[in-house]
Design a protein that fits this description.
The protein is an alpha+beta fold and about 120 residues long. It is about 25% helix and about 35% strand.
Amino acid sequence: MRHLRPLLFAISLLVPSATALAHHGWSWTTGGNIELTGVIESVRLGNPHGILQVNVDGEIWTLEVGQPWRNERAGLKDGDLSKGVEIKAIGEPSAELSEKRMKVERLFLGDQEYILYPNRD
């Protein structure tokens, strides 16, 4: 029993890490792209990634955008993603069909395209 306790402790440390990696990776998505157009209702930018609540034809979708450095690298500036702004987003939806959630790969504000994940095509 004395040797089993450290092993169980070590395993318990790994379990939350595996869950976090699954959430922040792409494993929860379908692997295929869809396109959504709607109006941003709320914004929370920051780490580990930004979250937009977007009204798409009367349904609220949760759109995950990049980390601050990724958004900046794509050319987004402070205030670009704000309440009331119309956005077109292309990305991978959740594999859980009832969950209205997308990991955004590319987005458009007007005619301007912002590529968050350039190697996902």
